[in-house]
Amino acid sequence: MVGSIAFWVAAGANRGWTKTRVPTKVMDTVTGLEGIEWQDKFVPGVDFLAAALLGAGLLAGVSFLVRTKSK
Amino acid sequence: MKTYLTVLSLITMAGMALAAPQTFDFKDPKGINNAGFKLDAPLESINGSASGVSGTVLFDPENPGATKGKITLATASLMVPNPMQRQHMLSDKWLDAAKFPEISFESKEFKNVQTTGDTTTAEVTGTFTLKGVSKELTAPVKLTYLKDKLGDRVPNQKGDLLVIRSNFTIKRSDFNIMPGQFEDKVSDSIELTLSIAGASPK
Prior knowledge:
CATH architecture of chain B: Beta Barrel
Number of strands of chain B: 11
Structural class of chain A: alpha+beta
Strand content of chain A: 25-35%
Strand content of chain B: over 45%
Order of helices and strands of chain A: HEEH
Largest sheet of chain A: 2 strands, antiparallel
Order of helices and strands of chain B: HEEEEEEHEEEHEE
Radius of gyration of chain B: 20 Å
Number of strands of chain A: 2
CATH class of chain B: Mainly Beta
Shape of chain B: elongated
Strand order of the largest sheet of chain B: 1-4-5-7-8-9-10-11-2-3-6
Helix content of chain B: 10-25%
CATH superfamily of chain B: Lipid/polyisoprenoid-binding, YceI-like
Largest sheet of chain B: 11 strands, antiparallel
Shape of chain A: rod-shaped
Largest interface: A-B, 21 and 28 residues
Oligomer: heterodimer
């Protein structure tokens, strides 16, 4: 749980949907136009965070159900 | 007398050639040409761009107000950061890229034309076609004519460049794109930004 929050924060704490590509601006010096290049980059969003927290919660719940009794 | 007439007709022809409108091709080998779009809904903001620009514009530096042309955008080139969002956007429920592969604007008339040096500003009226629906709209446009600058952009080519910039807003409901639905997440208003350069080789 802590790991997924840390990963989300380290990746920029994106409060939108998860992105798999990001736009970068490219300047054409002759025309003065700004072009946009799309680069593959994984940026986790709130959907990633929610799924990770849900997964962690489920695993924690399952661990209580299947834990072995100590003798 | 005969020589005089020949020289005179040659000068006239040269003058006509110089004054003739030039055809600018907007298929950009450098991939800079793009159209940006922004939708700002209460719950969600969507920013994207499209690079599949093509089309031709007839431009006369001596008479910018007579500019005519058609710019086309490949629907499938529309890009947003989230892959599922892009899949939805191009699906048959939204833009239906398979059935309507092109978005276009064809100019009809330029008004309020003002030229300063190589830059012309005007209001262009034309037909905007999206998802098979055509509507007439008027948008502000800025044209910049860059004489003999093609070689600076594409090595070993001589010619001129024409830069077109325009910002305008459309409503998706006008083009039958899920009218009245999901407006809290996908706004009805779509801000469009066109930044393109065309080449006229000599």
